[in-house]
Amino acid sequence: MNNKEYEVMLSSALKSMPLAAHHISSFEYFVEYGLQKIIETEGIIEPVIKPANYTDFKIKVSKITIGKPDIIESDSIIRPITPIEARIRDLTYDAPLMITVSYIGDGKVIAEEEVFIGRMPIVVKSKYCNLYGMSKEDLIKNKEDPTDPGGYFIINGTERIIITTEDLAPNNILINKDNQEGFKFSAKIFADADTIKVPHTLQLSSSNLLYITFGKLKKVPVVVLIKALGVTSENEMIKKIAKGNEDIVNTVDMNLIAFNVSSEDDALDSIGKMLHSVHTKETAELNIDSLLFPFFGRSKESRKMKAEYLMYVSNLLIKSAMQGKEVDKDHYSNKRLHAESYNLDMLFRFIFKQILNDAKYNFEKGIRKDKIPNPKYIFTSDQLTARLRSSLATGQWVGGRVGITQHLDRRSFPATVSHLRKVESLLTSNRENYRARDLHGTQFGRFCAVETPEGPKIGLTKNLATLSMLSKEGADTDAVKKLLKDYGVKGI
Description:
Dna-directed Rna Polymerase Ii 140kd Polypeptide, Chain: B, domain 3; 2 domains; 18 strands; 5-stranded antiparallel sheet; Rna Polymerase Beta Subunit, Chain: C,domain 2; globular; DNA-directed RNA polymerase activity; 4-stranded antiparallel sheet
């Protein structure tokens, strides 16, 4: 391939995959789907003090819409704003957010109104940016660099980016040798179901006894939990865990003898006692339904699926211990990269819950015997705007995390591109012997093998290869399920 052909191919690749595409597409996904999902899962307020003549009263937030970046001048004129003006005037490049608020009394909509709740900072060059769709000539007229990749926010005139973070894949089974005394192997599952995140640990002891830890429940015998989930037939349990392997059959038999529980109620009672509850059965059911493998559901109907999955993981754990095999957690199939959508979802959900709490207080405070306060007066817009700006400006995030955003490096164009494509591990950098620091074969073609800082962050801070790209979020789960069925996968 000669230089001319190489230049044509590289130019074509960069046009189809812009250098900041993962920042832009992740932000667009959050605005299009993430915001509405938060509204649907969190947007119900049930005030304690209800209006007269209503036995059932709710405040429902049903829809959220976002405008284009604008500015309200001192003479109250609202007009569009461009990124260059935000930089020069030390402004924040953001757009108004509106929500539809409904008062529902005894199942009927009493009042409905669109309410302004704050302003959302906008990623430059995204479809919500005023530069979107502009030609090279139009960008130059608007005093913008046509080669600028975008993918960053402008907060108080300063360009800030959300750093892409690397973490272990959720809902994945990671089996390794257990360093805890008395245990030989363990399987870890970081269960993630939108708002619920619960780490699970299955352990195989030196005497081949199986335990599981999740939530406040510590070292629950696995066979007891399986019976509490409704699988009381020991023959069925042996068959599904062992899958015909005689050695695993012996291990399961040992567990059934060691933890002899005859019925589902006895199993639930035994688990409830571990939580020191008076209402043992109810407490056990509440913990199992809400915290055990929440990605299968959080209702009584999901128990069968949870039992099947628990038996499947038990089989993998025992088999891995017998063979001495560990899962390579540094293999990139066991990692996930989080961009704007993941981080903004976490932040916005936290702030929105506080806004709803304030709205509930304002409603109860403003209610009168013959008068219901207007939706505009119970929702305040200052909190959302201030908190979003503050977090993006400082990098201080929900849960005490810091350094989520950084000031965009503008020393040179390659430095800017490098910064936009930086990936940082969530592991702390004060330990020297992380295997995560090493180059792994599965990083080939995905990350630059050379670019990483010297010192404490070596290997933990990486950079995406020039032509690598992140898969888009929001896979069509129904289409995936159909494909799996077509390939012969059977439902439980």
